[in-house]
Amino acid sequence: MPEDIVPLFRLPNFRDEPLLNWFLLYFPVGTMRLICDATNDNAKTIAWAHDRRWKYLRVGEYMRWLGMWILMTIYGAQNGNRRAYWGRLLNFGRFMSLNRFECILRAFKLPQYAKDDTKWGGDGAVEYAGIRYDKFQETRKFADMYRKLFQDAMKPGGWICIDECMFSWLGRVLKLPGWKIIKRKPHPMGLESKTTACSVTGMLIDFEFQEGKDVMRHFEFIEETNKSSAWLLRLTKRWHNMEKRTVIADAAFAQVRAAVALYKIGGLYLIGNVKGAHKYFPKAALKNETPAYERDELVCMTKQADVRIRDNETLTVYATGWRATGAMVCTYVHTGGTNGVGSDRVKRKFALTDDGKTHESTYHVKRPKVSSEYQSKMGAIDEHNSRRQSARGIRPLEKVCITRDTKDRIFINLVSWMLINVYLAKKFFVWNGQMRKSHSEVQESIAMALIHNNRYAEETGANAGDEDGNDSDNDVINDPDDCVRHPNYKGNTCKLCGQRRTVYFCRVCSTPKTPTQRADTGPKGGQKLQHGGYMHFCKGRCFMMHKCGEVPSRKKRANPTQGVDFYI
């Protein structure tokens, strides 16, 4: 049964590991070193200006550069201008100079396969050899490395979800390989990737870029079955013939041939919603023969057929039609799941009353277990896409990294997948499904951990804003985890700027005292308490710039009547 297969996160002692090590499970230091080597080699081919000489890139500095990209998603810049982050408000110059940041971006390069490497061109090497060019040459080795890391990072639960992802393309010229238009997507133009996710945890565990029909006709399983079935087989190959998991697929993949091939080759069950690809599927019969809709009654019909997959083994394939409304019949093909009664589908109904107000009511619709199982497990990848492209409280990383370079677009989206996987793993395996920290808080913590990495000091001996490598103690960078909200939401004026009231304080500098009663009373005559000992700072620049352990002298507020050029 799928319920008996428990997900497993493969980071040893993960409960005691810092958040940076969770991220390094997906982005190992060894891979960063390969990127640094490729970037340094590429920098030798660039004619640098006299004021932008290239300095050897090391792993510690690269981690800081990557952390700054992630930190940009937390703090928005005016009009999306990247150079605005080095202004007086955000002051990213305390981490790295703008000149150095732009130089690394210009020279940035991913490791690549050599032309004589057996992995050059991937599964479509035969087609690429004919044209003597691999359009994914810049990113193939990096993507192959991370596909293996995604597969090995965790053992998925009993349900596996298959769906599409889109990497949005910002340019007008069709440079992006695998460029495609899918109108129903929030970002319809870009690179399409078929992806696999664990429906229990929501984490991404495999992916495959779409390289075009001419190239993909050479891919694995194409000769044994049709294209849609081959997609499912390749995306689930890592878990073939291990445990009896159930694959959840939408109408782009679900068909009778896919259900048979998935069980015959991979030993996996399938639950899929059938719409267009209904070859060998009794779709018309189910729509015509399913009884009429009745309130509070389960209205469905199931047909079945036995398919011989081996000499002494047969597979039963089910076709279920569920009358969801008076006119709509949802059709499913499945080799797993039963036709018993599943959980009710809760729907809302609105009615306009005589006084002009809208009355909302809910009612329940009975549905079969195969339908409730499909609808509850199908949205893992859609939720993953939503967090990557429109998460609450942060800007999408693919929109922060505004570039028309193919490798940069693919690289930055892969980093987004890693960040979301770390958050979902933390939420499921440590917090037991509860949101103790928001996605933005976890992403900010990872960014600051990358920026404050020890390797930067060990390898370069340079501070964040000095490009020449001279030691300096003038920069102050504090840990964002020490900026916490007052337990009773008591606000006070910021100790650094003296301009704004804030409820955030530094728990390192603060020494909370016992609340004392004030002489004055509240508007309703209630007692007021004095909460002393808290050092309040604006969350963001003021907190990051204050010197921990020292009591700053508050700036005096400007008196407008004393201005030199003040006119009424």
Which helices and strands occur, and which strands form pairs?
Elements: E1 8-9, H1 19-26, H2 29-43, H3 59-72, H4 98-107, H5 125-131, H6 140-153, E2 154-155, E3 159-168, E4 179-181, E5 189-198, E6 204-209, H7 213-216, H8 227-235, E7 246-249, H9 256-266, E8 269-273, H10 283-289, E9 300-310, E10 313-323, E11 329-334, E12 345-352, E13 358-365, H11 369-377, H12 380-390, H13 397-400, H14 406-430, H15 439-451, H16 454-459, E14 483-485, E15 492-493, E16 501-502, E17 504-506, E18 516-521, E19 527-530, H17 541-545
Parallel strand pairs: 3-7, 7-8
Antiparallel strand pairs: 1-2, 3-5, 4-5, 5-6, 8-11, 9-10, 10-11, 12-13, 14-17, 15-16, 18-19
Helix pairs in contact: 3-15, 8-9
Q: What is the strand tally?
A: 19
Low-confidence stretches: 462-476, 557-568
User: Over all CA atoms, what is the radius of gyration?
Assistant: 29 Å
Q: How much beta, percentage-wise?
A: 15-25%
What integer is the average pLDDT?
Answer: 82
Q: Tell me the span between the first and last alpha carbons.
A: 79 Å
Report the helical percentage.
25-40%
Which of globular, elongated, flat, extended, rod-shaped describes the shape?
globular
Number of helices: 17
Largest sheet, if any? 9 strands, mixed
Coarse structural class:
alpha+beta
